[in-house]
Amino acid sequence: MRLLQLGLVVAFVFAASFGPFLAMGQLNQVLMRLFPFRRGLCHAYWAPNFWALYNFADKLAALAGTKLQFLDSSVLSKSSMTAGLVQEYSHTVLPSVTPAVTFACTVLSILPSLIHLWIQPSNERTFLRCLVSCAFGSFIFGWHVHEKAILLIIIPLSLLAVGSRADAKVFLLLAFIGHYSLFPLIFTQAETMIKVFMFLFYAMFANASLSTLHKMNPRWCGMPLLNVWELIYIMGIFPLDIYCSLGHRALGLMERLPFVPLMLTSVYCAVGICYAWLRFYKISLSNTTVKIHDE
To answer: What share of the chain is helix, strand, coil (3-state, %, to 5)?
Structure first.
């Protein structure tokens, strides 16, 4: 009976969402935007996920190949993934990625969490943890993912962070790097101070609130939920932002290499987000999560 009720709710939502477009004969337009297979693997600004690292590795391999004369220099001009355009392109050295590959990677990335939930459907936190894992998998391995989709992970993860110290550690790291990855979307000079102060205020508030809630002893750095290597990684945001905002232009490289600041931001953030995903998966598939009332 519950399965039937859930099915009716899902059917009603789909009918209310797609019914008007079906009646007006515009369903194909909706599907083309829901599944943008002709718009390329990545957005104009690479979302900081696994494919950003893949694109970066391909670009480095192509540059190394031309320097070592294994590849002709003309292959670099054929690769348009750093042109800032929304279109299909092929990788130069590494195998090109198709929508089927991203679909398979996404399914495989969320399958362990789904199986774990099916075997041990203990409470609502287990379901929420599975939901976050699915959001992680879709963001990291999805086709043409937009960078703002990181909020679909951060928001539900914030609910888990208040109940578990382990989740709070992952959330704090992801909140730092995830919100910073959105900086290139707010690119005018008039907005610079606003986004920087809002980012710092939120980071300090989240760190202070979660540290107090989970009764963490303060460190010299003031961020007891993060380990030394995570702190070093977070601190790397500041020199990166200085270079991307000021240094690249001061060196006169904007005309010749305009995409480099976006690429550096995307790749740097992708490392942290993939790390947070692996750490969260380890917590989700184990029984080591520490609850507040156990501390």
So the answer is: 70, 0, 30
Our CA angle for 77, 81, 87, nearest 5°, is 110
CA atoms within 13 A on the CB side of 282: 9
CA dihedral 253, 254, 256, 261 (to 10 degrees): 90
Alpha-carbon gap, residue 99 to 143, rounded angstroms: 6
Nearest-5° Cα angle at 202, 211 to 147:
115
H helices present in 120-227, as ranges: 124-141, 151-161, 165-180, 189-213
Are 142 and 106 within 8 A, CB to CB?
Answer: yes
Confidence of residue 133 (pLDDT cuts 50, 70, 90): very high
Answer yes or no: are the C-beta atoms of 144 and 41 closer than 8 Å: yes
| Proportion of the chain above pLDDT 70, given as a percent | 90
3-state secondary structure 129-149: HHHHHHHHHHHHHCCCCCHHH
CA distances from residue 218 to 33, 162, 214, 223 in whole angstroms, order as listed: 48, 18, 11, 7
Euclidean distance between CA atoms 294 and 164, whole angstroms:
10
* DSSP code for 164: B
* DSSP codes joined into one string, 55-118: HHHHHHHHHHHHHTTSS-THHHHH--TTTT--S----SSSPPP-HHHHHHHHHHHHHHHHHHHH
Q: Amino acid identity, residue 190? A: A
| DSSP helix/strand/coil, 276 | helix
Tokens standing for 212? 């107090």
Q: Quick one: average pLDDT of 128-146?
A: 94
Tokens coding 164: 């578990």
